[in-house]
Design brief:
heterodimer, A: 398 residues, D-Maltodextrin-Binding Protein, domain 2, seven-stranded mixed sheet, four-stranded mixed sheet, 17 helices, 15 strands, B: 442 residues, alpha+beta, MetI-like fold, six-stranded antiparallel barrel, transport (chain B)
């Protein structure tokens, strides 16, 4: 018995001692191939084995939060969206990266990406690529992107026929709708405190901005008759892929499929909605590579992370899937790419999604309010916004 | 070699076995924590040490109580019971009274990580003012973790002044960093108070719909299942086996997939069902977009999923009724209708009632039909985002714990689970008492 145990423990410690990195990823298709190729190259140059494990996007955060302190999580995650950052950093599972990176590396990053991956004044990951929604139009129906709301509306209504749709999008999801809240005066979800950090006590999506934005979203359905009931992400995306939809609000993640469906598309900002205070501006999401704070092999993990976000690697990553890198040098090399060019006109209008953990208490009530507003033509937008603000404040104040 | 008789013997044996298991686990944990201050031992050290204690311990106790050796066959089962049943249950009860969450998880907050520039015993000099770096005010009593490559130690702050930090313990290694620990606390009944403060927006309406849903779906499924069972039991029916197989298909397919197909079928503008209604000249129905119609949709889809079970149960129960009874009834001049009312239905009651009750208990917590079909939605005015039109208690608990309150409010989720447990037990007791389903068990 004791002998068997001794053998067992010997075997286990051997398995641990062999330098090996585990990587969790939500990439699929050509992007997964890209990651595996990068892992192979790293194996050759460093001698450290890299195992790439696919984990569904929706499971990564939960699994990582629970598993990392028990030594049950990957050494790296490729990649997390920056809005998980605050929660994961506070839970202690992310390794602060400040001590590993050079000034040279930082200056090559777009400032907005740096801001997105900084929480409590510390850098917690290496940003890799950015994404946001934009108006994607099918050039078969729309020759040139509409510049004003009037142009947009006329076009969208003209193209809404028995067999085609002018404009559809995932209308119930706050992420797709933030652009309208920003246009009507909500600079971000939360305001900033004196030090420039997001302050959860200052909720900006309520009040007048919230009411007007919600009214506009409701009008899209009931006044302009554009986004009928029953439209969700799948319906809108499917219609665009089938070539039955002229314009959609969607992001870079969908473009691979559109290319595959041989849709000739263009990318543009959404025009300023009627009566808005400023231009439409979407949530900007940055995804980056993070390292497990409990990793047994941190140095190699950081080295691998660095090779993944190098300008050269990001260019080949863009060619694999079409994501838009945040490294200035990579963007420069990709200037001619229509997708990169299109989104680089949209990104400056955007706002980085809040990365503080309180954001987790906003999504539910916010989405609820939008669904309520678009449920009936006579919904009371003012009351809906008041209820939403009360629910969010109560959850945050607890 | 005989063990003490009766209950006393049983309890003594169980006590000894449990004592052995708990003692060896305790020693394993103790060894782990003692080792932890020196180096970072792997988690399975606990298991190894525990086994090293358990095996000689079992031999020793076996010498003292020779009759106990038979009972050792229980040890594996007992260990599994402890680990996989009693421990999670105990943990749920405990967490319900804490504010444990994804962030307050008892681990160091790495966003407060601060470099240690000087160390002398329990006195540390940090590279930044303590109050700001560790984000604590007052800092006294705050739990922190000091660590270096391969070493970590927990301690509490005794005093913080400027960049100087005094802890209540001295680490046996050279510390490189210090970070605040996000400890979770015992909060008493606060979680329950929070749930009850939302009672009118969440608990009451959700509970009402939950009871309505469970009752209606069981009755509806049972009625349809009974009717089809009676029809299929008719020996004169041609192609009986074909019908029986065809009707069971919806039960045989995995619900996780078929429910999602139903979501597509029921779509307001693009679903096949509303298109069909349109062909027939009817108005489209907002199946999943209207708070009331969504309830109807759930009952109908659950009927589609659930009637084959009731039908099969009916067919099984019918086959236990002897044919002689019907022959005798025929001889006495009873019509088929009378035979149904006086013989079949009364004889079906006994086997069917326990099935109905267990089906009620199952549907009361039928998370997946709600989660997959409507996700609890659509939104309803005056209700919380976590408790929408078709949310039942368990989906409300899930949303509260995993999607709304910072996405991982385990303490609050545990409190709701305890409430659901109490409600389910109460309802089941009432059910069993009223119907007397457990009476024969005596």
């Amino acid at each position: 018995m004791k002998k068997a145990l001794a053998l067992l423990s010997l075997g286990l410690s051997l398995a641990l001692a062999q330098g090996k990195l585990t990587v969790w990823t939500h990439f699929g298709g050509p992007e997964l191939e890209w990651l595996k190729a990068q892992a192979k190259t790293f194996e050759r140059t460093s001698g450290t084995k890299v195992e790439v494990v696919e984990v569904p996007f929706g499971d990564i955060k939960q699994k990582f939060l629970l598993g990392a302190p028990q030594g049950q999580a990957a050494d790296l995650v490729v990649s997390i969206p920056h809005d998980w950052l605050g929660e994961m950093a506070q839970a202690g599972v992310l390794e602060p990266m400040g001590k590993y990176v050079t000034q040279n590396y930082l200056s090559d990053l777009q400032p907005v990406a740096l801001e997105a991956f900084t929480f409590g004044g510390k850098l917690f990951g290496l940003p890799a690529f950015a994404e946001s929604v934009a108006l994607i139009y099918n050039k078969k129906y729309v020759k040139e992107a509409p510049k004003t709301w009037e142009e947009f509306l006329a076009l969208a209504q003209k193209l809404t026929t028995g067999s085609t749709f002018g404009f559809l999008y995932n209308i119930g999801d706050p992420y797709f709708n933030f652009g309208f809240f920003k246009a009507f005066g909500a600079e971000n979800v939360f305001g900033k405190d004196a030090k420039g950090n997001l302050d959860p006590a200052k909720l900006l999506i309520g009040g007048e901005a919230g009411e007007k934005a919600l009214q506009f979203i409701k009008d899209l359905r009931f006044k302009y008759n554009l986004v009928p009931e029953g439209v969700d992400y799948g319906v809108a995306d499917g219609a665009f892929k089938d070539g039955a939809l002229a314009m959609i609000l969607n992001g870079p993640w969908a473009l691979g499929d559109y290319k595959k469906a041989k849709i000739d598309f263009g990318i543009a900002p959404f025009p300023t909605p009627p009566g808005a205070k400023g231009p439409w501006g979407p949530f900007l999401g940055v995804q980056g590579v993070v390292v497990n704070a409990y990793s047994k092999n941190k140095t190699q993990a950081v080295n691998f992370a660095k090779t993944l976000v190098s300008g050269k690697a990001l260019v080949s990553f863009n060619q694999a899937g079409g994501r838009i890198p945040v490294s200035k040098s990579a963007v420069k090399q990709l200037e001619k790419d229509p997708v990169v060019a299109g989104f680089s006109k949209v990104f400056p209008l955007g706002t980085p999604m809040p990365n503080i953990p309180e954001m987790g208490k906003v999504w539910g009530p916010w989405g609820n309010a939008i669904s309520l507003a678009i449920q009936k033509p006579d919904s009371n937008v003012k009351k809906i916004v008041e209820d939403m603000v009360a629910e969010i404040k109560k959850a945050i104040g607890k | 070699m005989k063990h003490p008789p009766g209950l006393r013997g049983f309890l003594l044996a169980m006590g000894l076995l449990l004592g052995l298991l708990l003692f060896s686990t305790g020693v394993g944990l103790l060894a782990y924590f003692l080792l932890e201050a020196r180096f970072a031992p792997p988690g399975w050290t606990i298991l190894v040490v525990a086994l090293l204690v358990l095996v000689p311990g079992a031999v020793g106790v076996g010498r003292l109580f020779p009759w106990l050796s038979d009972w050792y066959y229980f040890l594996p089962a007992l260990a599994f019971l402890l680990v996989f049943t009693l421990y999670p249950v105990g943990l749920t009860v405990y967490l319900a009274f804490t504010d444990y969450s994804g962030q307050r998880n008892g681990f160091p907050d790495r966003s407060t990580e601060t470099r240690v520039v000087g160390q002398e015993g329990p006195r540390f000099l940090l590279e930044a003012p303590v109050r700001e770096a560790l984000r604590c005010d007052p800092c006294q009593g705050v739990p922190v973790e000091v660590y270096a490559q391969g070493h970590r130690m927990r301690a509490r702050v005794l005093e913080a002044k400027g960049e100087a930090l005094l802890l209540d313990r001295t680490p046996p290694f050279r510390a490189e960093f210090v970070a605040k620990v996000n400890a979770f606390r015992f909060v008493g009944l606060k979680n329950f108070a929070f749930i009850l403060s939302q009672a009118s927006q969440a608990l009451f309406p959700v509970f009402l719909w939950n009871v309505t849903f469970a009752t209606a779906t069981v009755l509806l499924n049972a009625l349809v299942g009974l009717l089809l069972g009676l029809i299929l039991n008719n020996k004169g029916l041609k192609l009986r086996n074909f019908y029986r197989t065809a009707l069971i298909v919806s039960w045989a397919l995995p619900g996780v997939i078929t429910v999602q197909v139903w979501v597509a079928l029921l779509n307001y503008n693009f679903g096949a069902i509303n298109r069909l209604l349109g062909v027939l000249g009817l108005y489209p129905i907002p199946w999943l977009n209207d708070p009331d119609w969504a309830k109807v949709a759930i009952l109908l889809v659950n009927l589609w999923l659930g009637f084959p079970y009731m039908m099969t149960a009916t067919l099984g129960a019918l086959s236990t009724i002897p044919d002689e009874l019907y022959e005798a009834a025929k001889v006495d001049g009873a019509t088929p209708w009378q035979a149904l009312l006086r013989i079949t239905l009364p004889l079906l009651e006994k086997p069917m009632v326990p099935i109905l009750l267990s089906s009620f208990a199952f549907n009361f917590n039928n998370f997946y039909i709600i989660y997959l079909l409507t996700g609890g939605g659509p939104a309803q005015e005056g209700r919380l985002a976590t408790a929408q039109a078709t949310d039942i208690l368990i989906s409300w608990a899930y949303k509260t714990a995993f999607s709304a309150e910072g996405q991982s409010a385990y303490g609050l989720g545990a409190a709701i689970s305890l409430l659901i447990f109490a409600i389910t037990v109460a309802i089941s007791l009432v059910n069993f008492r009223v119907t007397g389903a457990l009476r024969e068990v005596k």
